[in-house]
Amino acid sequence: MAGHSHSQHPASTGGAAKPNTKLIWRTFWILFFITALEFLIAFTMPSGWLRVSIFVIMTLVKAFYIVGEFMHLKGEVKTLIWSIVLPLVFVIWLIIALLLEGDSILQVR
Amino acid sequence: MSTTTTVIDKRRKGSIWDGGNEPLKASYGKLMMWFFLLSDAFTFSALLVTYGMIRFSHQAYDPEIHGTFKFSQDYWPIPEKVFEAVPFLHGYELPLVFVGIMTFILIMSSVTMVLAVEAGHRNDRNDVEKWMLWTIIGGFAFLGSQAWEWTHFIVGTEEGSVARFMENGKWVEKTIFGANLVVNQYGPPAFADLFFFITGFHGTHVFSGVLLNILIFYNTATGVYERRGHYEMVEKVGLYWHFVDLVWVFVFTFFYLI
Questions:
Q1: Which of B52, B108, B118 sits opposite A21 (nearest CB)?
Q2: What residues in A contact B239, CB-CB < 8 Å?
Q3: How many domains are there within chain B?
Q4: Residue B26: inside a domain
Q5: From first to last of its 109 residues, what are the pLDDT tens digits of chain A?
Q6: What is the DSSP string of chain B?
Q7: Of A11, A30, B25, B166, which residue is the least packed, with the fewest Cβ within 10 Å?
Q8: What gap in Å lies between CA B133 and CA B21, rounded to an integer?
Q9: What is the pLDDT of residue B172?
Q10: What stretches pass through the bilayer (chain A) (predicted)?
Q11: Which of residues 15-54 of A touch B (CB under 8 A)?
């Protein structure tokens, strides 16, 4: 850590560096636009499987931008990306398991 | 001197996992934050999957069977009929507007947080202070909104709704107002229970996030990170704060939209 910080230090003494926020605001507008679209769909489209799947896909897109850009997972090394993303397969397993077996759980409760 | 260098070089040739370097190119603290967030993601997934399962086990509202929508214990309510109140606009039916405002507040505070992280990379103390302060304000604004929404949910509407209860072996009809963990005017009690658990657990995360943000702001303002030479702590707490926003994106979809 100490060696790390040393190399960054001269930047602070050499006057203020220019902020680079273009990508941040672009991500914000994407998130804003998708959320606005979600509202539009919520009030114009009849509920059903199609609407639910559209909502789920849009949520996953938003999640991708938050994790990828805001949390900057996109810029990490591949091993770190996969060690975070891959375990989430257990969530998918839980959903599939409950879709298949949930009925019997509800019957015996 | 030179012998030590060769020894290290030889070891490094074996594998990046043999030690002496950072295979994931991230500090210990940042890695642990990532893995903590992964475990937290499992907790929230479990809560939302539970919501899906319990909702699925209840009757869904069907206009052909139940007629026009009203709050009833017989079927799961439509969320946009439940969450339609906005502060200072009493009596107006504005479905999901307030939740939309809350979503916007949280996304906005996520943006100010990432701007603070960016300022930290430039070692710009004033900018980090400024953006951390905005993030804290955003966090408090969200918590305040949630407190209002909870109050409205608990107190209920003016008319309330009629529900049947088994009392001393007889069915009695009673008008109930609002919701708690036992009764719920908007629909089955499980709906209110899940509302309190899921949004409450998320709200607790926001609250601890605000506390962490205040800590970071304090340390920035007193120059702790400037003396340290880097602003990595802003990044770590930033990860947590973005995660809270991420969870809200999912709660928003699965609790309010679907």
A1: B118
A2: 71
A3: 1
A4: no
A5: 444 444 444 444 445 677 888 999 999 999 999 999 999 999 898 888 899 999 999 999 999 999 999 999 998 999 999 999 999 999 999 999 998 988 888 787 6
A6: -HHHHHHHHHHHHH-GGGSSS-TTSS-HHHHHHHHHHHHHHHHHHHHHHHHHHHHHHSPPP-HHHH-S----TTSPPPHHHHS---TT-TT---TTHHHHHHHHHHHHHHHHHHHHHHHHHTT-HHHHHHHHHHHHHHHHHHHHHHHHHHHHHHH--SS-EEEEEEETTEEEEEEE-SB-SS-BTTS-HHHHHHHHHHHHHHHHHHHHHHHHHHHHHHHHHTTHHHHHT--HHHHHHHHHHHHHHHHHHHHIIIIII-
A7: B166
A8: 36
A9: 85
A10: 23-43, 49-68, 80-100
A11: 16-17, 19-21, 24-25, 28, 31-32, 35, 38-39, 42-43, 47, 52
Give A59 to chain B, closest Cα distance, Å. Answer: 7
Out of A66, A80, A88, name the one closest to residue B245 (CB).
Answer: A66
Residues of A in contact with B110 (CB under 8 A): 66, 70
Query: B104 with A36: CB under 8 angstroms?
Result: no
CA dihedral (B39, B44, B47, B53) positive or negative: negative
Q: A-B interface: how many C-beta pairs under 8 angstroms?
A: 132
Distant-in-sequence, close-in-space partners of B32: CB < 8 Å, separation ≥ 6: none
CA distance A70 to B139: 17
CATH number of residue B49's parent domain:
1.20.120.80
What was the pLDDT predicted at B13? 61
Measured distance CA(B91)–CA(B84) in Å, rounded? 10
Question: How close does chain B come to A101, measured CA to CA in Å?
Answer: 11
Residues of the domain holding B179: 40-257
Residue numbers in B near A63 (CB within 8 A): 246, 249-250
